[in-house]
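quick q for whoever's on today - can somebody do inverse folding on this one?? i tried earlier but teh output was garbage lol. C-alpha cells:
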C-alpha cells in the first residue's frame, strides 16, 4: 500500500507541524506503507521523506522538471520520477497511490487534495481522501466545507467521505475502515435498467 502525502514546501512557524509530520512518516514506514509525494527536499515535504527513509520506508517522489532543475528535488529517495508538468505530476501520484492524505501546507497542498477529492466525487478513482488535522490546522477549512453543505453546494454524504483525524494512528485506522461512496455522476450505461 502507498499513500500520496500532500504537504508544504515550508516548515511553517510552529515546530509541532514538522514533529507531527515526521512521526506520521515514521508510522507509515513501520506499517510498510509507502509514501508518494512531490519529490522536494524542503519544508514538511523534506521532513516526511527524510524520516520515512530513516525508518526504512519506501518514498517515491514525483517532481516537475522545472522544480528539479531549480535544485529542490530530493536526491536520496527510493525512486524519483521527473515529469514535464504539474498535471503529469498529480496524475502519476494518483496512479501510484492507494489513498491521499493532506498534512499542513499552503495553496499547493489544498489544490492537490481538493483535486483528489473531486476525482473521488466524479468516480475517476475510488480511493480515500484524508486530512491529518495537526494541532487543529484544518479546523477553519473544515468549517468552510460544513458551510458549503448547509448552503447546498456539497452533499452531506460526500462531505462524510473525507477522513479527518488528529493523530497518525487514528487516521491509519480510519483508512482501513473506509469504503468508497456511490458515484455522484453516472453514465446512462451505469444506471440499472428495469
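ok took a stab at it. sequence:
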Amino acid at each position: 500500500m502507498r499513500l500520496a502525502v500532500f504537504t508544504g514546501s515550508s516548515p511553517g512557524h510552529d515546530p509541532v507541524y514538522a514533529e507531527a509530520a515526521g512521526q506520521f512518516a515514521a508510522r507509515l514506514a513501520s506499517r510498510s506503507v509507502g509514501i508518494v509525494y512531490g519529490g522536494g527536499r524542503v519544508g514538511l515535504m523534506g521532513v516526511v521523506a527524510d524520516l520515512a527513509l530513516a525508518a526504512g520506508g519506501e518514498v517515491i517522489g514525483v517532481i516537475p522538471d522545472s522544480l528539479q532543475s531549480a535544485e529542490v528535488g530530493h536526491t536520496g529517495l527510493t525512486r524519483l520520477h521527473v515529469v514535464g508538468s504539474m498535471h503529469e505530476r498529480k496524475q502519476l501520484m494518483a496512479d501510484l497511490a492507494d489513498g491521499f492524505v493532506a498534512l499542513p501546507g499552503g495553496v499547493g497542498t489544498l489544490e492537490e487534495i481538493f483535486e483528489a477529492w473531486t476525482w473521488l466525487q466524479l468516480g475517476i478513482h475510488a480511493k480515500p481522501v484524508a486530512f491529518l488535522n495537526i494541532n487543529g490546522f484544518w479546523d477553519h477549512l473544515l468549517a468552510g466545507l460544513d458551510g458549503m453543505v448547509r448552503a447546498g453546494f456539497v452533499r452531506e454524504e460526500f462531505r462524510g467521505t473525507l477522513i479527518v483525524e488528529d493523530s497518525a494512528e487514528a487516521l491509519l485506522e480510519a483508512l482501513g475502515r473506509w469504503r468508497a461512496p456511490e458515484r455522484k455522476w453516472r453514465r446512462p450505461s451505469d444506471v440499472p435498467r428495469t
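fwiw Strands lie at 2-6, 34-37, 59-64, 79-83, 100-102, 129-132, 163-165. also The two ends are 39 Å apart (CA to CA). so keep that in mind when u check it
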